[in-house]
Design brief:
Rossmann fold, globular, alpha/beta, single chain, binds NADP nicotinamide-adenine-dinucleotide phosphate
Length: 243
C-alpha cells in the first residue's frame, strides 16, 4: 500500500487532502505541530500515522523522513504546510522583522526544501512517485501586506519547475507537480477575503491533478489569474495587490 506524507495535515487543505487520499488507498503520514489536531485527523482515518514536526527544525525534519523510511513505500510527498504572516515591513522594529522573516522562510521554504531532499531517495526507489508542492495565486501576482509569504511561494514555484527538470533529466520516475491555490476557507484566511473555496474542493482538485499526471494544477480562480498574467501581468498584479 503506497504511503503519502502530507505536511500540515492537522487542519485546512492538508487535513482535507488526507481524507481524499485515504479514500484512494494511501497510507498516510501526517505532520504538523499541533499534536491534538493531528491526532484528531489521523484517528478518523484508516492507516494514518501522526508525527509531530516543526518544519523549521532540521532535526525534527530528519526524524520525520526517517519515519517515512520506516513505514516504507513512500510514493507521494505533499509539501502543503505553510504560514502567512500579514504585516508591512516598515511597521516592525528591525529585530522583530528579522525573527518573523526568518521563521516564515524556514517553514515555507527552507524546511520544505530540506524535507524534499530527505525524501527524494525514498521516492526515487518507488516507481510512479510524485512530489506535490502547494503554492498560491500570490506566487504569480503578490499582495502588499504579505511580502515574505508571497516571496516564499514564488520561490517554491520556481523550485518546483527546476526540480521537475532535474528528475526528468535523471529519468528518476519522480513526477513533480505544482498545485496553485486560490483563496481557500481555512485558518490561514480567517476573517478576510471573499469567494473562498472549501478545503475539500481544493483537495479534490489537487487529487484530480495527481490522477491526471499534471505538472501544474491551477485551482478555481488561480486558473483565471494565470491566464490574466499571461495576457497582462500588470492587470493581474492589480487584482491581488491590495488583498
Ligand atoms: N488558505 C488559502 O487561501 C490558501 C491560498 C493559496 C495557497 N494556500 C496554501 O495552501 C497550503 C495549506 O494552507 P491552509 O490554508 O490549509 O492553511 P492552515 O489552515 O493555516 O494550515 C496550515 C498547516 O500548516 C501547518 N504548519 C504551520 N506551521 C508549521 C510548522 N512550523 N511545521 C509544520 N507544520 C506547520 C499547520 O499545522 P500546525 O499548526 O499543527 O503546525 C497546518 O496544518 C499552504 O501551503 C498555503 O500557502 C492557501
Amino acid at each position: 500500500m503506497p504511503l503519502a506524507l502530507i505536511t500540515g495535515g492537522s487542519r485546512g487543505v492538508g487535513a482535507a487532502l488526507a481524507h481524499e487520499l485515504a479514500g484512494r488507498g494511501y497510507r498516510l503520514l501526517l505532520c504538523g505541530r499541533d499534536t491534538e489536531a493531528l491526532d484528531r485527523v489521523a484517528s478518523a482515518l484508516p492507516q494514518a500515522t501522526a508525527v509531530p514536526c516543526d518544519l523549521a527544525d532540521a532535526a525534527q525534519l530528519r526524524l520525520l523522513a526517517e519515519e517515512s523510511a520506516r513505514l516504507g513505500e513512500l510514493s507521494l510527498l505533499v509539501n502543503n504546510a505553510a504560514v502567512q504572516d500579514v504585516y508591512e515591513l516598515g511597521d516592525l522594529t528591525p529585530d522583530e522583522g528579522c525573527d518573523r522573516i526568518g521563521r516564515e522562510i524556514a517553514i515555507n521554504l527552507t524546511g520544505t526544501l530540506q524535507l524534499t531532499a530527505h525524501c527524494l531517495p525514498l521516492l526515487r526507489a518507488r516507481p510512479g512517485s510524485r512530489i506535490v508542492n502547494v503554492t498560491s495565486g500570490l506566487a504569480i501576482a503578490p499582495k502588499r501586506r504579505a511580502a515574505v509569504y508571497c516571496a516564499t511561494k514564488a520561490a517554491l514555484r520556481t523550485f518546483t519547475r527546476s526540480l521537475r527538470y532535474q528528475e526528468q533529466a535523471a529519468a528518476s520516475g519522480v513526477a513533480v507537480t505544482e498545485a496553485v491555490l486560490p483563496l481557500v476557507d481555512t485558518a490561514m484566511t480567517a476573517g478576510r477575503g471573499s469567494g473562498k473555496i472549501s478545503p475539500a474542493e481544493a483537495a479534490r482538485a489537487i487529487v484530480r491533478g495527481i490522477e491526471g499526471n499534471r505538472d501544474e494544477v491551477y485551482v478555481g480562480k488561480a486558473k483565471l489569474l494565470n491566464v490574466l498574467y499571461r495576457v497582462s501581468p500588470r492587470l493581474s498584479y492589480l487584482t491581488t495587490r491590495d488583498g
